Automatic annotation (TrEMBL):
Name of the protein this chain belongs to: ATP-binding protein
Annotated keywords: ATP-binding, Kinase, Nucleotide-binding, Serine/threonine-protein kinase, Transferase
Source organism phylogeny: Bacteria, Bacillati, Actinomycetota, Actinomycetes, Kitasatosporales
CDD domains found in the cross-reference section: HATPase_RsbW-like
Domain of life of the organism encoding this protein: Bacteria
Histidine kinase/HSP90-like ATPase domain sequence ranges: 33-130
Natural source organism: Streptomyces lonarensis
Keyword Phosphoprotein: no
InterPro entries: Anti-sigma-factor_SerPK, HATPase_C_sf, HATPase_dom
Length: 155
């Protein structure tokens, strides 16, 4: 089996919990990491009894799928591990996906160009987050990469 097609559990670091309500784990930049992250975050939110209904869970899984897929497809050469962070704090859920590529996508700040075919996934992330009453953005990391994040209110 191609190593880009699955996320081996031996390469996935266990989630680390910080006192501020944040869990962080890393996955290899391979296709199989996408469903693994969706399942891991869904299970984490259920274990924490986060007030996440079906519609919000669908939105969370969609956003995670898009962001991790982008890390696999566009940043794998510069990213030995994709970081995933989940924060539950003060009635909010924050998802962050970190990669080592310095390119900051403009799609989160732009209106779609009808002639461009790329970047629509991030426009979807933006639309889903805003529709849920949250937000999204890109933050550079000290190591030269970026974190693409989305927030969702829990109510």
């Amino acid at each position: 089996m191609d190593s880009r097609s699955h996320a081996s559990t031996q390469h996935v670091l266990p989630a680390r919990h910080r006192p501020d309500g944040t869990w962080r784990f890393t996955v290899p930049p391979v296709d199989g990491s996408v469903p693994w992250v969706r399942h891991a975050v869904r299970d984490l939110l259920r274990r924490r009894r986060a007030p996440v209904g079906d519609d919000l869970m669908f939105a969370v899984e969609l956003v995670l799928s898009e962001l991790v897929t982008n890390g696999v497809r566009h940043a794998a050469l510069l990213t030995p591990q994709i970081g995933v962070e989940v924060t539950l704090l003060d009635g909010w859920l924050r998802l962050g996906v970190e990669d080592g590529h310095p390119y900051r996508p403009r799609a989160l700040e732009a209106v779609p160009d009808q002639h461009e075919t790329g970047g629509r996934g991030l426009l979807l992330v933006k639309a889903v987050a805003l529709e849920a009453g949250g937000d999204c953005g890109v933050t550079p990391t000290a190591g030269g990469g970026k974190v693409i994040w989305a927030t969702f209110p829990l109510y």
